[in-house]
Amino acid sequence: MKTSLLAIVLTVVCSHSKAAEPIQVGVFDVDASPPVGSPMAYDPVKAVTTPLRCTGIVITGDQKPIVMCAVDWIGIGNGGQTIFKERLATAADTDPDRVAVHTLHQHDAPRCDFSADHLLVEHELSGVGFDPGFSRDVISRTATAVGQAIENAQTVTHIGVGQGTVEMVASNRRILGDDGKVLHTRFTATRDPEIRAFPAGTIDPQLKLISFWNGDKALVAITWYATHPQSYYRTGWPILTFQEWREMRDSQKPVCLIFISTVRVETLVPANGMMERKRIARSWPIAWQTG
């Protein structure tokens, strides 16, 4: 998804030279916190201390709008993706294939799959895996926010592209021996220091960033990094695996979004969670400066 995301943005913005209408970008941000008692991936919600968000941007111009959305949930699949994209596409007056819906995949968070829920209805098990009413409410509020983002969109004159290296976070899960067979596996909590000490393996260590500007004014930045954000879970509280990103997103302009794809995070256990999050956070200023 990383290549296609960059290609979409660069294609739209770079084709602006012959466009009759200016490229504009709007930002939306919606509360996506699950209600107490509703299902998450593993346990029901006990309380919400760290709100989850659904954030994104809308890019408009001569072509049909593009919507990119990131949700603080563990996953949105099948019918969840279909309905999410259709509703946001309608709100933006565009096609569903010009809408990208991502999840950050933290594990103490809701999921959304209307196709699975449809199969469970006939067995009177609707709502067991997730709360479909809550999911539809988030989708509805996000669609409204997309329309408002278009109304408040600002002209883009420049874009910035940068990256920063993330150290000692992501790694390969499987470690091969000299015979080419799996010698060790790094699970969620790998306490053996010898297994943790093996090289990270073949990964993409770069946190990537695209920023949108109106002259000297930063409008919004998108960031993404490939890892499996699985530091600790089964707490009963919706969590953000990389809390420092939320703090930067809430306290700084421009708004920052992070798209995390699933690879493998290195040896995360609760005691190491803060250390790993700070390693991620250190890469953002580097990506910003190089952009």
Structure write-up:
By secondary structure, this protein is α/β, with parallel strands linked by helices. It has one domain (1-291). Helices cover 30% and strands 25% of the residues. The strands form four sheets. Strands 5-3-2-1-7 form a five-stranded mixed β-sheet, with helices on one face. A hairpin with a 2-residue loop joins β11 and β12. α2 (79-92) packs parallel to α4 (132-151). The model is unreliable at 261-271 (pLDDT under 50).
Keywords:
291 residues, alpha/beta, five-stranded mixed beta sheet, four-stranded mixed beta sheet, 7 helices, 13 strands, 30% helix, globular
Topology readout:
Elements: H1 2-14, E1 24-31, E2 53-60, E3 66-71, E4 75-76, H2 79-92, E5 99-103, E6 111-112, H3 114-121, H4 132-151, E7 154-155, E8 158-165, E9 174-176, E10 182-185, H5 193-196, E11 206-214, E12 217-226, H6 243-251, E13 255-261, H7 273-290
Parallel strand pairs: 3-5, 4-6, 12-13
Antiparallel strand pairs: 1-2, 1-7, 2-3, 8-11, 9-10, 11-12
Helix pairs in contact: 2-4
